[in-house]
């Protein structure tokens, strides 16, 4: 069975988040080892983790959760609504999520493009570390979330 575009996009987001979690774990482990062995931690670990790794970790799995319907739900209202009303409410909810995620993707993509154009970077000692990949992960994740919500609305 061939996977749909939203399903493939969600899997890519999950894979990116999992890969970055592994890299972040390795980086922090090396930082701790350097501190234990030499008394001096690696320079810039906190900055690199917060600017480069965390956007992938935080936003990478959003679309997959939405696509699978694994988000936190409050079913109080569902219990008193008829099946057609529940289906309509689900479609409306997915539409609202898709529109909000699309707007967030647009706005954060402008910020990521601005960071890329300006060559935004961190200076850690003599190292310059670009920050646009972390900033670009956010609009990509919101775009995937919008796509997942649209697909879920279609399926409901």
From TrEMBL:
Gene Ontology cellular component annotations, sorted alphabetically: plasma membrane
Domain Tripartite ATP-independent periplasmic transporters DctQ component stretches: 24-155
Biological process, per Gene Ontology: C4-dicarboxylate transport
Listed GO MF terms: transmembrane transporter activity
One Pfam match: DctQ
Cellular location(s): Cell inner membrane
InterPro entries named in the record: DctQ, TRAP_DctQ
Topology of the protein relative to the lipid bilayer: Multi-pass membrane protein
Lineage: superkingdom: Bacteria
Record keywords: Cell inner membrane, Cell membrane, Membrane, Transmembrane, Transmembrane helix, Transport
TM region(s), chain numbering: 12-37, 89-109, 129-150
Function: Part of the tripartite ATP-independent periplasmic (TRAP) transport system.
Subunit structure: The complex comprises the extracytoplasmic solute receptor protein and the two transmembrane proteins.
Family: Belongs to the TRAP transporter small permease family.
Record protein name field: TRAP transporter small permease protein
Record lineage: Bacteria, Pseudomonadati, Pseudomonadota, Alphaproteobacteria, Geminicoccales
